[in-house]
Amino acid sequence: MASHSASISPNKRFLIFFDFDETIVDETSDDIVVEAAPGQHLPGWLKDTYRSGRYNEYMQRVLAYLAEQGVTESDLRSIMEKIPASPGMLTLFQFLRTRPAHDFEVVLVSDANTFFIEAWLRRAGVRQLFHRIFTNPATFNKNGRLVLRPFHSHECQRCPDNMCKQVVVRDYVARRTQERGRPYQRIFYVGDGANDFCPALSLGPRDVAFPRRDFPMHRLITETHEAMPGEFKAVTVPWVSGEDVIMRLRKLVAE
């Protein structure tokens, strides 16, 4: 599902993508939601249903189980709202908000879901910063169960069945470039996981990938540089805090 805000100015100089779990927030929302379960853990029979590459389907079963145990929309929202932001991330958002209006177009690409993400962003007061949100759709049915669906289907061998972020990033950049009539000066991608490596592969040599230091995205970039020099084209700036991202962005917007 792509969440739309008002029409975006065609004058933005830069496009910046953010992942959600363990990038914007310092936890994985799908793991945290288990706190709503009886005894704060899932039964073994349910955990045993997970299959590689089919995490979205597994989470559909988890959410159904939670509803059967009496977990409500309010319970889920409360849990999501309590997830801490990653270090320096709210400071980074404040930096982006205070830049001139023509600087940054901000997009979120996540394999979480609309309800978890919207609940957290609104509680943190940063929802309006994001021009688009691409994630798995999730809505409550008449029985009060949060029903999760896959974002799309694709043919990428690296990514889970329900979402290839490179497809999302490529399609969005191509569409926006056509709408604007010109490319962005630079594209940035801030992430942490293995599924953030795939979209970062589509970045060019003027663009910047910001992998969370020592997380899977960072390790995959490092391994690719060693095994296939030149395959990964973007400049790589690892981050521990959002302040690290700000430092590099300050230099680039001043050029």
UniProtKB/TrEMBL annotation:
Note the Pfam families from the entry: Put_Phosphatase (PF06888)
Which keywords does this chain's UniProt record carry?
A: Hydrolase, Magnesium, Metal-binding
Q: Which cofactor does it need?
A: Mg(2+)
Top-level taxon of the source organism: Eukaryota
Against SUPFAM superfamilies, the record matches this protein to: HAD-like
* Alphabetical list of InterPro entries matching this protein: HAD-like_sf, HAD_hydro_PyrdxlP_Pase-like, HAD_sf, Pase_PHOSPHO-typ
Report the sequence similarity comment from the record.
Belongs to the HAD-like hydrolase superfamily. PHOSPHO family.
Give the PANTHER family listed for this entry: PHOSPHATASE, ORPHAN 1, 2, PHOSPHOETHANOLAMINE_PHOSPHOCHOLINE PHOSPHATASE
Q: Name the chain's protein.
A: Phosphatase phospho1
Q: What is the lineage of its organism?
A: Eukaryota, Metazoa, Chordata, Craniata, Vertebrata
Q: Gene name on record?
A: PHOSPHO1
